[in-house]
Amino acid sequence: MEPIIYDTSDGQQLRINMISSWLKRHYEELGLTSPAKIVKLSLDGGFTCPNRDGSKGTGGCLFCSESGSGDMASKTAAEQIALLSGKWPADKYDLKYIAYFQNHTNTYAPADELRVKFEAALKTADVVGLAVATRPDCISEEVLDLLTELNAKTFLWVELGLQTIHDETARAMNLCHDLADYDDAVRRLTGRGIRVVTHLILGLPGETREMMLASVRHACRQRIFGLKLHMLNVVRGSGLEHAMPDYVPFDSMEEYIDLLISALEIIPPEITLHRISGDAPRSTLIAPAWSYKKRTILNSIHKEMRLRNTWQGRLCT
Q1: What are the residue ranges spanned by the domains of the chain?
Q2: CATH 2.170.120.12 fits 9-308, yes or no
Q3: Is the CB of residue 16 less than 8 Å from the CB of residue 22?
Q4: How far apart are CA 144 and CA 163, in angstroms?
Q5: pTM of whole model > 0.90?
Q6: 201, 188, 193, 198: which is closest to 224 by C-alpha?
Q7: Which of 134, 310, 297, 284 is nearest to 202 (CA)?
Q8: 42's torsion region: left (phi>0), alpha (psi -120 to 50) or beta?
């Protein structure tokens, strides 16, 4: 069987359907000149969560940082563009941006308030799309109507923090939502033609390798646009730091890479991958101590896939 190569630009031979490559192809087809670069702008909409404000719980998810997993987020799209100007110089790329409302729960507010914040971001120069991270139990009918309206006007995906399909793990991590909430949210969003990106965490306490792969399989059975596979990071200020201060999700980078490749092999080729590692700031990271080495991890994943002659979707029928 010939391997699937998802990206051959810049001399690459990528065996994973990464969202960065997918977006570049998508927008070049719509008229961007090559080399196109679509950059996500991490935004802080000023929201909270129902398991922080007491409506469902307090303290937040055990693994979540004090910032709601948005340590690098800015208040406005323009501010984030300025911060990234050195990394992606405009004279070298045809740059466009996705406004990504990242931290806490970005549909946990009245639809009118959400409209103001989402539309303000979309009015920023060179912003061509919107990504909204949220919980599966926080999408009211009014919010769903707003997302449907925006989906008709711009490129949109909604990121759902499933994390695990195992309700016992969800309770232990204080998620305050369960698999039924997620399945219902996917059904309602995809029923409106809205792209869904599912967030899973690998390495949650008590979960075996097969439990983690079962979560991947479940997510892939539904009509989702993308997956985010996040290695668990134990970070300072999180509930996990205090509840399990000695917990180490993976003993080595090689152990994580082996699991990650097994997950990729069962993910259908059409599903885009939005993350395949962890990304906590080194200043707040506790464990795994090596997980801040993002570039090393990514390069090692791609190298190992070539050595094994495997690819995303290899085991899909």
Answers
A1: 9-308
A2: no
A3: no
A4: 22
A5: yes
A6: 198
A7: 297
A8: beta
Instruction: Give the span between the Cα atoms of 108 and 210, in whole angstroms.
Output: 33
Angle, helix 253-265 to helix 209-220, in steps of 10 degrees: 30
User: What DSSP assignment string belongs to 18-35?
Assistant: BHHHHHHHHHHHTTPPSS
Query: Could you tell me which of 179, 51, 166 has the C-alpha nearest to residue 105?
Result: 51
For every residue of 37-68, which 3-state class applies, written as one string? Answer: EEEEEEECCCCCCCCCCCCCCCCCCCCCCCCC
Pairing of strands 155-163, 195-202: parallel
d(CA 255, CA 283): 24
Q: Looking at the DSSP assignment, which residues form a beta bridge with residue 156?
A: 130
Q: Which structure tokens are listed for 71?
A: 């340590």
State the chain's maximal CA–CA distance in angstroms: 53
Tell me the C-alpha distance between 140 and 146, whole Å.
10
Pick the closest to residue 80 from 116, 131, 151 (CA basis).
Answer: 131
Q: Give the pLDDT of residue 118.
A: 97
Question: Is the CB of residue 133 less than 8 Å from the CB of residue 121?
Answer: no
Q: Is the dihedral of CA 20, 24, 27, 29 positive or negative?
A: negative
Rg (CA), the chain: 19
Tell which residue, 152, 68, 74, has the closest CA to residue 106: 68
The enclosing H or E element of 287 equals strand 285-287
Local mean pLDDT, 10-residue blocks, the chain (317 residues): 88 91 87 79 93 89 73 81 81 87 94 97 94 97 98 97 97 95 98 98 98 98 96 94 94 97 98 92 92 94 97 94
CA 135 to CA 137: how far, in whole Å? 5
